[in-house]
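Input structure tokens:
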């Protein structure tokens, strides 16, 4: 046994790792997310930027000191991911694109399909955070990237999930949505991904209701019996939401203001809250007086599965004949409602 081998054995027995591996541990330690963010948006953004900069410096240092280490490829990927996240935070679209192009180059350098799939998945995840503001463009880019991944790695358990996530952007394109869902199902969903299976079943259930009369009746929060059939002849918006959800509150504030100015529109709310106090406080603050369904069961509500609702907020639009005309008009409700109001 030579002196170097003896030193390594003594070092390992004594709990001392070679410097390269210790530094890699420092790199991976930065994977832990920043959990205690300030409620102040400026301070929260600063904390996130500081974290991403730490990741950048750690990987740059590692690659400089250990360019031939077995973790060097992974470090290069982590470096570009951190750069892209920091640029997204700024935001700096040019810098984001530079990092994404570098990740594409790294995909070509991967040593095996598993490594290539991991790098591509990370790149796609970052791309989806920077799809732009145009709804059609976002949908096209997401669908394209999901299909590229699933075609190249059909046995990867993330492939059906990507297709399912891309289908979320296709609520205004039912034909495309159904195709994506069927493609995801065809790839096979593992037993450990039961939640995804249920989501896809919910989505198909919603698609099957499109263009058909909707059956909906409940006692509202004031004890009055509400039946959607009573609204025949009116255009109705059904808002599925939860007061405990920040994205819901932001969206519904604008929608409530819009709806109050459209006399020909009827609105019904379906709350997935568990605490009625949250619902009452929100409706009061937002000046909402729509009939509101509430059973306190949250996502365990019978309406969630029966109607296939798996994302909030969701906005259904019902025509004058009581038929479902939009699976989720959340992003373009003004245009859709105007079209329905003009129909007789």
């Amino acid at each position: 046994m030579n002196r170097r081998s003896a030193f390594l054995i003594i070092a390992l027995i004594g709990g001392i790792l070679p410097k390269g591996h210790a530094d890699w541990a420092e790199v991976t330690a930065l994977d832990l997310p920043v959990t205690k963010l300030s409620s102040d948006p400026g301070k929260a953004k600063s904390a996130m930027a500081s974290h991403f900069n730490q990741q950048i410096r750690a990987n740059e240092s590692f690659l400089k000191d250990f360019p031939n280490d077995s973790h060097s490829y992974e470090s290069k990927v982590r470096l570009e991911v951190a750069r892209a996240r920091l640029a997204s935070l700024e935001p700096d679209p040019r810098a984001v694109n530079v990092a994404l192009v570098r990740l594409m180059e790294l995909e070509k350098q991967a040593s095996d399909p598993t490594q290539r799939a991991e790098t591509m998945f990370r790149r796609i995840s970052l791309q989806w955070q920077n799809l732009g503001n145009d709804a059609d463009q976002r949908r096209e880019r997401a669908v394209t990237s999901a299909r590229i991944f699933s075609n190249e790695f059909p046995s990867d358990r993330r492939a059906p999930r990507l297709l399912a996530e891309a289908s979320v952007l296709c609520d205004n394109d039912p034909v495309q949505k159904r195709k994506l869902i069927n493609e995801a199902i065809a790839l096979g969903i593992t037993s450990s991904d039961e939640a995804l299976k249920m989501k896809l079943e919910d989505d198909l259930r919603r698609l099957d209701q499109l263009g058909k009369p909707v059956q909906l009746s409940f006692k509202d929060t004031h004890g009055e019996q509400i039946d959607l059939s009573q609204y025949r002849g009116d255009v109705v918006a059904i808002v599925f939401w939860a007061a405990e959800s920040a994205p819901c509150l932001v969206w519904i504030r604008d929608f409530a203001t819009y709806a109050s100015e459209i006399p020909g529109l009827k609105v019904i709310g379906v709350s997935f809250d568990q605490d009625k106090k949250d619902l009452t406080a929100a409706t009061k603050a937002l000046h909402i007086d729509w009939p509101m369904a509430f059973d306190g069961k949250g996502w365990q509500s019978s309406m969630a599965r029966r109607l296939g609702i798996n994302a909030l907020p969701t906005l259904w639009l019902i025509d004058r004949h009581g038929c479902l005309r939009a699976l989720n008009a959340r992003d373009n409700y003004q245009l859709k409602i105007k079209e329905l109001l003009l129909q007789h």
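The chain has two domains: 3-207, 217-342. Confidence is low (pLDDT under 50) at residues 1-22.
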